[in-house]
Each structure stands twice: as C-alpha cells, then as structure tokens.
Amino acid sequence: MDTISRENNSLLPMGGVIIGAVALIIGGFAAIKLNTLSHTVAAQGDKVAKIDDIASQVASASQASDKAARDITTLQNSTQAAVNQLGTELATLDEKVKHIEESHVAKAAKGPKGEPAVAGPGEYIVKAGDTGAKIARANGVSLGDLTSVNPGVSWTHLKVGEKLKLPEKK
Q: CB count, 10 Å around CB of 75?
C-alpha cells in the first residue's frame, strides 16, 4: 500500500522543480559572472603589479635625489670653505708682495751707501711710473738725445732710483 497516491494533485513537487530550475539558472549566471570577474581581477592584478613596480622605482629615485641634494650641499660647503681659505692666502700673499715692493723701491731710491739718491746737475733720478718718453718730455729733450747719452740703460726696465744723464738742451 502506497502511502502516496498517484492521484495526488499537489503542486508542491512541481513548485520544487521550478524553484530548483530557477536556482540552477541563477547559479549558472553567477558562475558566468564569477568567471568574468575572475578575469577582470587577474587583469587588474597585472596593473597593480605594474603600479607597485612604478611606486618602487619612484621611491628609489626619490632616495637617489635626496642623496644627490645632500652631496651637492656638502660640495657647496667644502667649495666655499676652500674659496675662503684661498682668499685668506691671497690676502697674505698680497701683503707680502706689497712689503717686497716697498722694500725694493726704498732700496732703489738710495745711493750706493744707503743714502737717498740725489740728482746732480744734468742728471735725473727715475721715479715710479717713469718711461723714457715721459722723462724726455718733462726735461724738454728728445728721446733720441736722452737714449744717446745713456747707452747702457734698458728703457723697458727702468728702476726706481736709477740715475740718468740728461742731454744738453739745444
């Protein structure tokens, strides 16, 4: 004896089949969407990896830039220190050169016994900045006459305190 009769007109099994079919369709649609989403995530994963690589390169470049900036600052500071030291040395050398020039001028302006050179009649004592032409003009003689009475004089290297003969005026 069958407990379930064949003549059962209940819609319950039919509703279960319909709900099962709808669930199967939704499950298939979800599986298709999940597959599409999986491909999209995989494609985005490659892009994320590229972005991570770029971010790593940017960080590395930033570190290199910071190091270069520190190196430039260090170089500027050491260059400035060297220039300051060079300026001090040049100032010292300049003072020494001035001292040597002053002592040279003082020695050249003195006579053979260390006394100041004095021009006698018909003589001229060379001063700083003098040239043969200036001396000739100042004394009213020609340069040719001045050079002829002073044959051993180097006119391009006149020395302060050097005695020259003056030619007679015509």
A: 10
